[in-house]
Amino acid sequence: MPTIVHEFAWPDRVVVGTIGVPGERTFYLQVRSGKQIVSIALEKQQSALLAEKIDEILDQLITLEGNPFSVPTSTPVELVDNDQLEAVEEQFRTGAMSLGWDPSTLQVVIEAYPITDVDADENDELLNEDDTDAPEVLRVRMPVGTARAFAKRTREVVGAGRPICSRCGYPIDADGHICTLPEV
């Protein structure tokens, strides 16, 4: 079965956002180009790592002599996007992701693949193609300014969750927290 590729070469919008209250949020990577919108669910940790690695790539590119790719050191004000997610229809839940740099288009490239469901008892047996959906991939290409803005917003969204207990490091729920460490 052929792979379904949701490709966005120059998206109008690419953001990470959430639905739900802290502690019960679902994270989404949402991309829009014109009327085409794709939303994929991902974990909070995937979101945080994605932002971190995008900044690392951009920071490495800045160090090249003369900054030939015009990578901004901070988020360009005109690219800040603090709007809510648009209508969310989950395309798939993200499993593996890859991140790269395309020097031919001067863009950061994100690829996201769905979680694959393989029964643990049949780990060596291939699934019958008639019983599975076509594989999918989301491929997003972002210019450097958009990538910097994406990483900033993603860090803010991840950081907007539940506060962390200063003693044990676990999240504090809205209804309270019982710390497992004794007070000092």
Give the topology, please.
Elements: E1 4-8, E2 13-19, E3 26-33, E4 36-42, H1 44-62, E5 90-102, E6 107-114, E7 136-143, H2 144-159
Parallel strand pairs: 1-7, 4-5
Antiparallel strand pairs: 2-3, 3-4, 5-6, 6-7
List keywords for this structure.
single chain; 184 residues; alpha/beta; 7-stranded mixed β-sheet; 7 strands; 30% strand
Counting DSSP E segments of at least 2 residues, the number of strands comes to 7
The dominant shape is: globular
Quickly give the structural class: alpha/beta
> What portion of the residues fall into strands of 2 or more residues?
25-35%
Radius of gyration: 19 Å
Mean pLDDT: 88
Give, in spatial order, the strands making up the sheet with the most strands.
Answer: 1-7-6-5-4-3-2
